[in-house]
Structures are given as structure tokens and as C-alpha cells.
Amino acid sequence: MAEGISVTTTQAGAGPWRLIPAAAAAAATLWFAGFVAPVSHGEIPQYVLPWVPMLGIDFAFRLDGLSLAFALLICGIGALVFLYAATYFRSDRRLGSLLLTLIAFAISMLGLTVADDAVTLFVFWEGTTVTSWLLVGFDHEREKSRAAALQALLVTGMGGLALLAGLLIMGGMAGTYRLSEMNAMGEMFRASGLYPLIFALVILGCFTKSAQWPFQFWLPGAMAAPTPVSAYLHSATMVKAGVYLMARLTPALGGTDLWIWTLVPVGAFTMILASVWAMRQTDLKLMLAFTTIMGLSVITMLLGVSTPEAAVAAMTFLLVHAFYKAGLFLSVGMIEKGAGSREYPEVAGLAAAMPLTTTVIALAALSMAGAPPFFGFIGKEVIYEAAGHAPVLPLFVAGAALVANALMIGCAGMVAIRPFFFRPRRSPRDMPADPGWGLWLGPAILAALGLFCGLFPGTVDHALVAPMVHAVTGAESPTHLALWHGIGAPLILSLVTFALGGCLYLLLDPIRDRLAAAEPSLPRTEGWYDAALVGIAAIAAALTGALQNGRMTSYLRWTFLTLGALIWLALFVGHGTWPAFTLSREIMDWAIFVIIVVSIVMVLRTHSRLTAITALGGVGSGIAIIFVLYGAIDVAMTQLFVEILVVIFLAIAMVRLPPTGAMPFRVGNALVAAVLGLGVFVVQLSVLGTDLDLFMTVFFEQSSVPSALGHNIVNVILVDFRGFDTMGEISVVVIAGVASIAALRAGRRTLR
Amino acid sequence: MKSLILSTCTRMLMPLILILSVFVFWRGHNEPGGGFIGGLLAATAFALVEKAEGLEAAKRALRFRPQSIAAFGLGCALVSGVWGGLQYGYFLKGVWPFITIDAEGNKHGLPFGSIFLFDLGVYFVVLGTVCGILFALEDVVSREADVEED
Questions:
Q1: CB-based contact A234:A60 (threshold 8 Å)
Q2: Which ipTM did the prediction report?
Q3: What is the mean pLDDT of the segment spanning A124-142?
Q4: Nearest CA to A226 among A338, A98, A78, A416?
Q5: How far is B96 from A169, CA to CA, in rounded Å?
Q6: b/e for A487-519, b at 16 or more Cβ within 10 A?
Q7: Is the pLDDT of residue A579 over 70?
Q8: Which one of A9, A391, B107, B118 is most buried, counting C-beta atoms within 10 A?
Q9: Which residues pair with A57 in a beta bridge?
Q10: Nearest to A473 by CA among A206, A313, A250
């Protein structure tokens, strides 16, 4: 029955449930849209849910302009991507898990951008890392996907750890984990001696997440992810988390020389590097991945410039990029579905067969190229405007932006002209055609938004950009977006960009071939990643080989030696007192002493394992009697039963081993035994010699009956006062049991 | 190799030990005993059966898979924790629904609640894990012996 249902659903495609995530995300977008008006008037909605009040950590959320813009992007583009994914993977049985992971990712990303508490932000930050690992490795049956997912996880995970350290230092200095309160203490952070450390740690987190040099290599690798995932994670959301955090912490950390001279050069260098390599790609999706790195670098560089004009440019470009890049990623998926390939040399002349795809891509690509009247044009103008006002190296910033933008025009031509115009039709699929509405609706809306924002820049400026800039700089936005800025340096630079970009597009093939030919001889950035991976594996192998040599005696020797060393260290470092040591006159004590000593002598003298085990049981029983004598009945009972069971276990295991024969006396082992035994003996004595603090004992004696309704204090402590410890212990017991059973069964299999 | 004396004794001892283990567990909150000791005691009962009658007999006597018993125990402990959490807002806080305390501080009613459930969980975890490892170990060793005899 269940089988039959699953087969039919696979054939017909998933049911209407697949549209639920898209609908939910659309509803969330509308809900957030309701905040646009209040936020643009300066209101900042907050919501706090106590989490660890003792440490001042809360689930604190705050919706200022920056957070709101991100929330709208995440939910809005999320809705379109969920719809797209539901269509793209309609007949794939993994659709459910894909949508579920995408939703988990969207929630993490949303939490990250609206969090006002540093720890909350970090938790969501790691949430995006883990979910993106699952999403990049979605085709987990392919080796390449798994490697790419692992690479993304390790690089961003490493940055995440650095970020946590940075945020914790900041929290410790500020005495609060609220980002909004930290941002108010910018002077204190910048003047502090710890500033370089905080900066390095936080920026490491941001650069790894947002794929800045030298961590940029994971992003093209992550294109192993399915198209909808790339469109969502690697254009509009996850990779923007790093940029978001830089913008978020600008009031606290930004504006210093260190900030400017790190962000501007790294941003500019990554920007040019990425745009050059974008020209080399033939896979359109991979090309878009490189242009995404370029987009992120532009924002990084602009945030580094640290002027109000640059903040306007950064925030505007962030929106511009989100619209056109997500649209283009989704559109490339349309080419792939409709024509059968996303390698541009393999497809050509599709304009007549796929008019809708052509239009959508053309709109998005025009915004990417920065053509008027698209939003991309405004984005480019404000970048040039900001470059002119840059406090450091304005020519350098403007020049880097010019080169990168020109290369963008070449790339826009690559995706919008090459597959569609001026050549006879050619495609792996015989009858290329536009895909269904579920696929084109999303990119079409995004492309249309690019045009809409370009035509009505005042609306976007008032509703989104100005509040975002206010959140970053704490001041009113100095410039207002407009399509026509008048004739000035930015316009002239734009015209130069178009000319240069046009030339680059015409020279696309020779540039690509030259780059492809030069590629093997150039140094690879991921070299350090590969080397680190190999190095860690080698160290792990060497260490495991030395410690896990498979000999039980060796393990025991090392364990006991370490324990003995620790005990003697404690004895010498600590300050215990030597107790008054009087010999007991009780006959019972001497009887127990004799039992234990005789048992130990037997253990040492016997050649039979069984005898040795039983004699060890004798030692344990002697100790159990001591417990009885001193009134610790519970401990005695436990000790006794454990002894019995241990003897049974060892008897089963060892009875099958060959006879030991005469055991040679090993001086080394004897020394280890002596060191440990004497150490324990002396420690016991010195523990007895110290004054016992009876605070806990008195507390338990007094509270056991009234608060826990039990007379047996030992049991009450175990199950009530320290129940959480016991919970942990029994979990460990179960895990150890399952592991032993598994290990034993594995041994059984190799025997056969 | 079966010993007649051992198996005859086991037949009488095993129920006695089990009853004793339940008794020790039951009185554990006020007298020496409790879930951990009770569970160990119950495990020795099944170890005895295993030694006297063989692995299959011990598995039959236990009825359920040892791992399931351990998992059930962990589940009991978790439920008791959540119970306290739902009732008082603190995970693992003791809940005694049938006990009332009068003005003199004397308690009346049935001593059953989340702490009892928690201790029961400990009992089953210990019983299940010890039996699980014991059975697996015996299984491996006896198969190894078969291989040698072949």
C-alpha cells in the first residue's frame, strides 16, 4: 500500500504540499513588509525571550533598517526559490528533504540577521553553516559534492569559531551581549588594546563566510549544489552573512586604519581576481559564482571605505546584487531545464525557442551590466560617487571598481547574448522550450524588481536604503538615489565602463582561452587548504599510530602512567597536610587487611587468569566490607555487585585465551604500578588529613526529607538533587553499552 | 557444560534475586538501595541464568532485547525530566502528584512521582546495558569456541 502510493507520487510529481513552504515564506515577506513604514520612520521593533539570564544572554531580536532589508530579501527570495525548487525537483523523491533543509536554512539566516544578541547571532550563524553543508552536499552520492560540502563546512566553520571568540571578547569588554549596546560603545572598542585581536577574529569569520580572498575558493566549489540552492544561498543570503555582520558591526569596529587598510585592499583584490576568473568559465553557473564573489568584494571594499557615501553605495549594491544575481542563477537553471546544458559553448540561438527565458535573462543581465534605467545603473553610479569621496586612494578604489564593472559587462553578455542571439540554434535537447510557470515566475519577478527599482529609486531609497544606511552609519543618508545624477565623474566613468565592457565581451573567447591556458601554471589559492587538510590527516595518522597500537598492555601502561603523573603533580603542587597516622586496633580492620593482602599476593603469584580474576574480586569484596563498616551500605552493595559482574565478564572473556605460562617480571610495569599505587595511597591520606567541609553534608541531611521526600540521602542525591548528572551518566552507560555491543559484533563478523 | 547443581539452584535463586532487586529498588528512596543497585542485582540474576542454562535461556528469560530495555529506561528518565519541566518549569524537578504534606510536615499518600519514574529509568538502563554487553560477549566467545572446535 505504502509502496504503491510512493510510486504513483514519484511519477506524477509531489502533491500540492510542495507549495506550502513558498506560501509560508510569501506570508512572512508580507508580515515583514508591514514593518517597512514604521522602520523607515525610525521605529525599531524589539523582542526579547530570556535564555540564560545569569550570563546576560537572551534570544534578543531587533528589527532596524539593515535587519529588515535582509529579512525581506530572505523571505521574499526564499518564497520564489521555494516555488522554483518545488517545480525543479517536482518528480524527485528528495524534494521533501530539500525543502525541509532549505526552510531550516532560511530560519537560521533570518535569525542571524534579526538577532541583537551576539550569542544568538552565533547560534544562527552556525545554523547556516550546517544547513548549507547539507544543501551543498545534496547530491551526496557524488564524491565531488561531498568534497565541496566538506570544504565549505571546514572553511566557514573555522571562521565561525574565530567569530565566536571575537564576539565573546567583545561581550566581555562591553559587559553586554547586545549588539545594539556594543555598537554604542565604538569608541571604547577602537581605543582598546584588544582591538586588533577582536578585529582579526571577527573579520576572519566575515571573510570566510563571504568568500573573500584568501578564502574565496569554497564558493565556486559549492556550485555542486542544485541550482535553486545556489540561487538562494550563494547569491542573496548565506554569503551575504559575512557582509551583513561587517555592516552590523561597523559602528562598533569600523573606521579605523586597520579596518580601512584591510577591507579596501582585500575587497579590491578579490573583486578583480573574481571578475577575471569569471571570464574564464564556460559553465554559466560557475561564472555566476565568480561574479558573486565579485559582488561581495564590492560591498566589502565599500564598507572598508567607511564614508557615509560608501555606506549608501554598499547598501544599494547589496539590493541590486540580490535581485539580479538570484534572478540569473534561477534563469541559468531555466536554460539547463529547457535546452539541456548550461555550458554556453553548447547552446546558441535559443531566443526564438525560449522567448520568456531570453526576456528574463536579458532584464537581469542589463541590471548586472549596469545599463540605464535599471537598478544596476544606479548601483554603479553610487559606487563611483563613493569612490570619489574615498578618504584613501580614491583613484585606486575607482579604478578597481571600473575594471570589475567592465568585466561584469563581459559576463552579462556571456549569459544574456551568447546562448540566445546571433548564432544558429544549437542545444543538447532537440526541441528547446521555455519551462513551466513555477520556474519562470521567480526569476521574472526578480528581474522586474531590478527594473522597477531603477525606475522608482526614490521609493527604494526612502523605504529600504536610507534606514539601512542609518543602521550602519548612525546618521542620515547623505545622498539620495536617482536615475539621473547629472553629468559628472560617475557618469563619465559609467560611459568608460560600457566601452571597456563592450570590448571585453567581443574579446571573450581569446581572453577565456588565454586564461584557461595559463590556469595550470598559476598558484592556487586553495593550496593552503589542501596542505592543511593533508597535514592534519598526517598528524592524526602519526598520533593514532603511536597511541592506538592495538596492544591492551600499552594502553593500560600509558593510562596508568598519566594518572600516576597527575596524582604526584597534584601532591607536589597542592598543599595538603600529612595526617596523623595511627594503626588501628580493631580486629575487623586487620581481618580485612589480611583478606586484601592475601588476594593481592595471589593476583601477583598465580599463572592462571581465572585465579587472578577471582582474587581481584576478593580485593573488591574487602573494600566493600570497609564500606559496610563505615555505614555506606549503598556504596558497599554497589561495589559488591559490580565485583561479581566484573568477575563474570572477565571470566567469559579470558577463559578462552591461551594459558599465560610463566610471566616475566617487567621492571617498567612494576615501576608504573608502584608510582600509581603509592600516589593514590598518599593522596588518600592527605585527603583524610584535610578538614572536611561539611557544608554539603549538612545541606543534604537537612533538605533530603523536606524537599525531596526521601530518607536515603545517597539515593536522593542521585535521583533528585543531582538528577541531571545521573541523566548524563545513564546516557553514557547506554552509549557505552551500544558501542561495546557493536564492537563485539564487528569482531564476530571478522571471525567468519 | 551444564552443572546440575547450578541449574537447580538457579531455578530457585533467580526469582528470589529478581524479587530482591525489585524490593531493593522500591525501598531505595528511604532505605539503602535504589535503581542503580536494583538494576545491578537484576543483571546478576540473568547472568546466573546465562551461566547455568546458556545464552538462549537467558535471552528467553529476559524476553526483550537488552538494548530495548536500556533505551526504555533512558526514555523513562527523559519523560520524568520533562514531567518536572512541564509541571514546575525546571527540567528534572521532582513531582509527587499523590503526596500531600500536612501542617506538621508529615506526608501522606502514594510515594509515586517523577523521581520514582527516573529511578525506574536508571534500573532499566543498568539492567539492559549490563545484560546487553554480557550477551554480546558470550555470543562472540561461544562462536569463537565453535570455530576452534570445527
A1: no
A2: 0.91
A3: 91
A4: A98
A5: 45
A6: eeebeebbeebbebbeebbeebeebbeeeeeee
A7: no
A8: B118
A9: A52
A10: A250
* Nearest-angstrom CA–CA distance, A341 and A150: 26
- Residues 6 or more apart in contact with residue A145 via CB below 8 angstroms: A136, A137, A138, A139, A224, A225
What is the residue whose three cell numbers read 552590523? Answer: A248
How far does the CA of residue B1 sit from the closest CA of chain A (Å)? 14
Q: Which residue has the higher pLDDT, A477 or A187?
A: A187
pLDDT digits (tens, 9 = 90+) for A641-692: 888 888 888 888 776 777 666 677 888 888 999 999 999 988 888 877 777 7
C-alpha cell at A305: 571605505
> Are A637 and B51 in contact (CB < 8 Å)?
no
What would the 3-class secondary structure string for A360-403 be?
HHHHHHHHHHCCCCCHHHHHHHHHHHHHHCCCCCHHHHHHHHHH
E strands, B97-143, in order: 99-101, 107-109
Q: Is A37 on the interface with B (CB under 8 A)?
A: no
Range of the domain at B89: 4-149
Question: Three cell numbers at A105?
Answer: 536554512
A583 burial (CB, 10 Å; 0-12 / 13-18 / 19+) is: exposed
Q: Could you tell me if A734 and B127 are in contact, meaning their C-beta atoms sit under 8 angstroms apart?
A: no
pLDDT tens readout for residues A278-325: 888 888 898 999 999 999 999 999 999 888 889 999 999 999 999 999
DSSP 8-state symbol, B97:
T
The answer to whether A635 and A714 are in contact (CB under 8 A) is yes
Calpha distance A243→A221 (Å, rounded): 20
Chain B residue with the nearest C-alpha to that of A733: B129
Q: What pLDDT does residue A519 have?
A: 81
Q: Which of B92, B111, B137 sits opposite A724 (nearest CB)?
A: B92
What's the rounded Cα separation, in Å, for the pair A417 and A155? 35
For B109, nearest residue in chain A (alpha carbons): A709
Please indicate whether, in this complex, the C-beta atoms of B134 and A649 are within 8 angstroms of each other: yes
User: Which letter, b or e, does each residue of A16-40 get, where b requires 16 or more Cβ atoms within 10 Å of its Cβ?
Assistant: eebbebbebbbebbeebeebbeebb
